[in-house]
Amino acid sequence: MEQLVSIIIPAYNTQDYIAEMLECVVAQTYKNLEIIVVDDGSSDGTADIVKEYAEGDKRIQLLQIENGGVSNARNVGIAHSTGDKIFFWDSDDIIEPNTVEDCLRFAEEKDVKAVLYGYSDYINGDKGKPFKSCLKEKYTGIDIINEVMPLFLGRSYLNVENWIKGRCGMREAQEHTALWRIMLDTETIKSNGLTFDTKLSLGEDTKFINMYFCFEQSVGYLNECLYHLRQRNDSANMTSNSNAKLMTQNKIKLIYARREIDRIVYKKYGINSQEFWKGTVVLSAVQLAIKLSNDKSRSFGENFAIYKKYMQNKYVQSFVGEFDTGLHLKSIPFIMAKGNGYKWLFVLCSMLPKKVLNRLG
Question: Fold for domain 5-133+175-238?
Answer without folding.
Answer: Spore Coat Polysaccharide Biosynthesis Protein SpsA; Chain A (3.90.550)
